[in-house]
Amino acid sequence: MPSSNILLATGLVFTLGLLILAVVDPLFGQCKSIKARVINSNNQTSTIALPNGSVARVPVGNLEEESHVQVGVKQRLFSGTSEYKLTSTPPLLLNEHASNKKKSL
Fold it and tell me: Does any domain span residue 71?
């Protein structure tokens, strides 16, 4: 096998390994649930303060500021990055509550 083919085969194997890692990494990891405090919230996203002092953004909006929410944390197996998702029903802002919408109509 010429050296150019060996280099090509090595590159393909390396690329395939990275592709498999990119697919498998989000599937496995450690999951836990923590309580976080809502710092800021708009219509689409909310910023939460975590117990370890870090701040994260979740794709759920209209949360009441300074309220506490349950957040599911999944730490990826290889990369070590964390994903945050709300696990409990979040409290809505007063102006977004369904009963207040009926009163305003």
Answer: yes
Distance CA 6, CA 23 (A): 26
Whether 101 maps to a domain, the answer reads no
- Residue with tokens 């999944």, as numbered in its chain: 74
Q: Is the pTM of this model over 0.70?
A: no
How many Cα atoms within 13 Å fall on the side-chain side of residue 9?
6
Q: Is the residue at 54 inside a domain? A: yes
* CATH number (domain holding residue 80): 2.40.50.140
The count of domains in the chain is: 1
pLDDT tens digits along 46-98: 999 999 999 999 998 888 899 999 999 988 877 788 888 888 655 555 555 44
3-state helix, strand, coil in the chain (%, to 5): 30, 35, 35
